[in-house]
Design brief:
The protein is of the alpha/beta class. The chain contains 29 helices and eight strands. The strands form two sheets. The protein has a six-stranded mixed sheet, with helices on both faces. A hairpin with a 4-residue loop joins strand 2 and strand 3. It is elongated, with a radius of gyration of 28 Å. It binds guanosine-5'-triphosphate and magnesium ion (MG).
């Protein structure tokens, strides 16, 4: 909002998924928003400010999630479309992948139909050049009637020209001509219902395509009576178009298919005039590697290799060696004794001393956990994850795991939010927006809360498992995967709603940019410190108070039938579960210290790790789940996780006590 007051004008960066919108947003505003090599990185609006043109006029600039059409199929697409309708920007900068002009032109036509001034930016010009794609920019500019510039966002090539030409944005001259039947419908809708609306042709087309997500916008715009008439008019008109006995929007001959077909023809005709492909294209090494990662052989081997590297780098190196070094030499050996001395000197009051340096002390517990144990682990994870994100491996993983995900009523597209959950479950709940149906989004939200440990928690868990045997790791992993699939499979059976076919854009394998990865690590670490440290302090403080008023031992006593008798863990682990409500990693770090103090035997370690993994989502994830899925669903998920966690822990405890394999 603040930007709006400063800047008179506004522009939105719009385009297909993964074409470089966020890199360009960063270039236009000097801000940093996340850039990764997979479609669906951006799922919300980001705002910044930039000055463009000779006059250096100030604009509020908005980055948006990728869209394939203004008739949205998923929630993130809806976010972008609604931004156009509701914020009415002065102009749009459409970012296109120069390698796929056809797909971009569909969107250009749609934006034109909404009557929005436009400038078209053909990005990834370097990759188009390499593939021998030549586009006559001048001619395209003339045919469309809007400025067209070519850019390579990652090197900055062409960005200067884009900035200087932004004020020249125009409503495209090129209009798609539809069949007389459709044109007739448009005319009647525009004249009877939308005469005062901006972009009425575009809105009418959305209505004809059967887009009901636009109703809430129209309801606000039209009087109730008029809106009611519009809905019944649409019903009558659509019956005229759909002649099939089983009407479906995707069917041939349906209005949305017809509209698509007319745009497609126009796009192909335009491309035939402006584009040629020269020379023969030899498959590059990156191209071959990209294909290998998607074939069962050697795809699964590559996947195993990636997992092994992750285990070695995060579990053994970061969580084992680095944490040990920091904990023993730095915190226990140097910083904590120093702090203890200082506190004892400055604060003679025993209460304050205990609060800061006692068993549940802010320095000795909260900060040691957050900085000595979790921080090195998440840093390593963010580095590893950044490399995966930017190489383009993640969408390929979606292809590999598509079949397995189908068992859970999901498709390969859901691999992305689930894998992102290994980074941060809270962010991953947001990225469930890229999924097409409510049912899929709900299943993913349940599974993220239940069975996907976040980077911080995973790191601590890996560290503890690495200290045991490989058998322990396999048992833990098998139990988690078993529950992931069983719960997923049951949810798919029980929950109502539809699932969708798998369509995902596979970007080329790209060499990760170190600069981008460092920026992402920095941004994520700042975010971690801002979010985690206060919660670690809060959690410690709660434990401290509960201990003081003897509530802690009461709770431990009350839960002992479950924790001690059923799951077979020492009483003290209850504390780890209590702080686990605030943050997943805090809970795990609690177990980590108990294990290091020798209070847990190997069987108890494995059982407690299963429980803490399946245990509740952290506070932040819970809050985001409320926002995205509603309070009732979030609470149900929460209770469900507690139940499953202790259920699984108890059963595993019984089995392990019986077979005694660890
Ligand atoms: N070779 C090349 N790569 C680019 C160019 N522009 C962006 N990229 C890469 O393309 C990938 C996607 O960039 P983003 O800016 O995240 O794309 P986006 O359009 O915001 O993607 P979503 O938010 O997922 O829709 C990243 O790996 C970028 O480094 C370019 O001009 N040339
Ligand atoms: Mg983006």
């Amino acid at each position: 909002m603040e930007e709006k007051i400063i800047a008179q004008k506004s522009l939105v960066v719009i385009g297909n998924p993964n074409v470089g919108k966020s890199v360009i947003f960063n270039q236009l505003t000097g801000k940093y928003v996340t850039v990764s090599n997979y479609p669906g990185t951006t799922v919300d609006i980001s705002r910044g400010i930039g000055s463009f043109g000779i006059a250096k006029e100030k604009y509020a600039v908005m980055d948006s999630p990728g869209i394939n059409s203004l008739t949205p199929h998923s929630e993130d697409e809806q976010v972008a479309r609604n931004l156009l309708l509701e914020e009415k920007p002065n102009l749009v900068v459409q970012i296109a992948d120069a390698k796929n002009l056809r797909r971009a032109l569909h969107l250009t036509f749609e934006l034109g139909e909404l009557g929005i001034p436009l400038i078209l930016c053909l990005n990834m010009w370097d990759e188009a050049r390499e593939r021998g794609i030549r586009i006559d920019l001048g001619l395209l500019e003339k045919l469309l009637g809007i400025p067209v510039v070519a850019t390579v966002a990652i090197t900055g090539e062409g960005i200067g020209e884009l900035k200087s030409r932004i004020p020249e944005a125009k409503i495209p001259l090129k209009k798609v001509k539809y069949s007389p039947e459709i044109e007739q419908f448009l005319k009647r809708t525009e004249e009877n219902f939308l005469s005062e609306e901006k972009g009425k042709r575009g809105i009418s087309l959305m209505l004809l395509a059967g887009d009901t997500t636009i109703y809430s916008f129209l309801r606000k715009k039209l009087k109730e009576e008029k809106f009611g008439r519009l809905v019944s008019f649409l019903k009558e008109e659509k019956d005229k178009f759909v002649r099939s006995p089983r009407p479906s929007t995707e069917e041939r001959g349906s209005p949305s298919w017809l509209i698509f077909d007319f745009r497609e023809r126009e796009a192909i005709e335009t491309i035939a005039q402006v584009q040629e492909v020269v020379g023969e294209i030899r498959p590059s090494l990156a191209g071959k590697l990209g294909t290998w990662t998607m074939r069962p052989f050697p795809g699964y081997l590559i996947l195993l290799g990636v997992l092994f590297l992750m285990y070695e780098f995060i579990g053994v190196f970061a969580a084992g060696k680095v944490v040990n070094f920091l904990e023993e030499n730095f915190f226990s050996g140097l910083i904590n004794p120093f702090l203890i001395k200082i506190v004892e000197l400055i604060f003679p009051l025993r209460f304050v001393q205990e609060l800061l340096i006692g068993q549940y002390g802010i320095f000795t517990m909260a900060l040691t956990y957050a900085l000595a144990i979790v921080l090195p682990i998440v840093t390593a994870f963010f580095l590893f994850f950044g490399l995966l994100e930017d190489s383009g491996y993640l969408p390929r993983l979606s292809v590999m795991l598509d079949k397995a995900f189908r068992l859970m009523g999901l498709n390969g597209k859901a691999v992305l939010p689930m894998v992102l959950g290994l980074g941060c479950d809270t962010m991953a709940v947001l990225s469930a927006r890229i999924l097409d149906t409510k049912k899929e989004r709900l299943i993913v939200s349940i599974l993220l809360a239940l069975a996907v440990p976040c980077s911080a928690q995973l790191g601590v868990i890996l560290a503890m498992l690495a200290g045991l045997s490989w058998k322990a790791t396999i048992i833990w992993l098998s139990v988690i995967i078993f529950f992931l699939f069983t719960v997923g499979w049951l949810s798919a059976k029980i929950l109502p709603g539809a699932t969708t076919p798998f369509l995902v854009e596979i970007p080329p394998i790209r060499r990760p940019s170190i600069g981008n990865i460092l920026k992402k690590i920095q941004m994520r670490l700042v975010w971690y410190l801002k979010e985690a440290v206060p919660l670690f302090i809060l959690g410690t403080f709660v434990l401290f108070l509960m201990d003081k008023v003897k509530l802690l031992s009461l709770i431990e006593y009350l839960f002992s039938p479950v924790v001690v008798h059923w799951v077979g863990l020492p009483l003290k682990t209850t504390q780890a579960f209590i702080v686990g409500f605030l943050r997943r990693d805090y809970g795990a770090a609690g177990l980590y210290t108990l294990a290091r103090e020798g209070l847990l035997n190997p069987q108890q370690i494995v059982v407690s790790l299963v429980v803490i993994t399946l245990f509740v989502p952290c506070l932040a994830q819970f809050l985001v789940t409320i926002r995205e899925r509603g309070l009732k669903t979030a609470v149900m998920i929460f209770l469900f996780c507690i139940f499953i966690a202790f259920f699984a822990g108890g059963i595993l405890n019984l089995i392990l006590s019986w077979v005694k394999i660890i």
